[in-house]
Amino acid sequence: MTSLAAQMPGLGDHRGLRGTYRLFAAGNNADISAHVQAFGPLPASGIEGDFIDVLESAGLTGRGGAAFASWRKIAAAGAAARSRAIMATKPVVIANGAEGEPLSFKDKTLLAHAPHVVIDGLLCAARAVAGGQMFMYVSAPSIPAVKRALAERTDARNIKIVAASETFISGEASAVVNSIANGKALPLERRRRLSDSGFKGRPTLVFNVETLAHMALIARFGAAWFRCVGTERDPGTRLLSISGPISGQILEVAGDVSLEDVLTQSGIDVSTVGALLVGGYHGRWVRRLDYRLAPTGTESHTVRPGAGVVHVLLHSQCGLEATAQIVSYLATQSAKQCGPCMFGLPAMARVMNAIAYGDRDPRLLLELVRLSDVVTGRGACHHPDGTAELVRSALDQFSEDVDAHLSGTCLKTKGRRS
Amino acid sequence: MREVLHIDWTRCDGRGLCTELLPTLLGRDDWGYPLAMQAAGGDPSNVVIDFQHSEAAADAVKLCPKMALALAYEADQADETW
Ligand code: SF4
Ligand code: SF4
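^ thats the input. predicted complex w/ iron/sulfur cluster below
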């Protein structure tokens, strides 16, 4: 491994690339010249097969939710492509910018202001697997900026833009592949990995756009540079979409940051915060602020960032009402392909709403726990599992509220219960 | 390697023929969909099939009107969703 200084020749020349301020260092609405001025050109070589090793030492994980090790995905797709006996099948690489999660807007922001970083990353990933077709699957509002960016460069002619649908589930990896191949943004029943057999049966890589953006910078500045922010188990930076009582904002934070730090950096008065929803609608409610935000670690000290969502609930707001609204929404977003999800989620929503809005039947709590267990793991995608996780965390974190509701009061909205 | 009966939830319509053929391995949930009594690796889409039920499981695969069932060996199952 070369030294850190040797890995970053002239990094000081690139304005802004210090601390955790990385992905947006080229400024707002960065065109190709602002991009190249800030980051330098994408290296012409050195991003072939051995880029996988660089990614492995960088320790980059997916930023779209599941946090898989990026190098493992690339290695699996490469191996699958090599193992095809006749007619080498070139892997397909997809940049996933479908941000169906209502509380997430970091990917749209990234595509609007730093599209070239994402495009660079897509080119890197494709080069690393000797890939063929490349797609950018982005929601309609992102298309103009991406189109403009693609038109500004000569190395991106093989990239095709596909419009993502605006459903919660549209960004699920197999739904992305299904949408591009068949125009249906529904998850696929899969018994093989996409990296093995995805788009038209070819080895397929689906990467979140932020993951690709990190790749683009790792390709330039190296693994050690990436790791000089964050911690051993969660190196580098990640984007967060912060929402709640304040208007939404995007933060780029160090890996393994504490929730308290996140709030302070967002300018939120910690004393007003009752709870945080972390990870998104498939995430987890937490009330303590000393949790660290990292994809691995014990449940009692870490909370997974998921798609990078931190949503603030004030002391004055009722967590059960908030959860009921989310579960109602999630029930409408079942792709209605799988029975337990199609029927189970609306059933969960009914019970959750009953608890939140004044029904005092003491059996409701056990019924909700039972339904959460019934739906878990029984769908083609993780939609039921994520919904059940959210509900379990609400029952756990807001247990005093549940008791109060079931005895006819609310700790938050004070006595307006029946 | 254990034999595993995989349920494709996108196809299954919950009419419950399989639960009749394999009453000790499959229950029914609130809506009639098969519910694994013993899930392979904790995954309720994969039902552990012991030797004495191997034939009944093969029948279920053949007779499922939606072709929602498949037999496999545990090691063949994709462990991650990417
Ligand atoms: S589990 Fe639900 S959301 Fe996922 S594919 Fe099945 S029906 Fe659709
Ligand atoms: S027989 Fe097939 S369609 Fe019927 S419940 Fe069983 S798996 Fe579902």
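The first strand of chain A starts at residue 92 and ends at 97.
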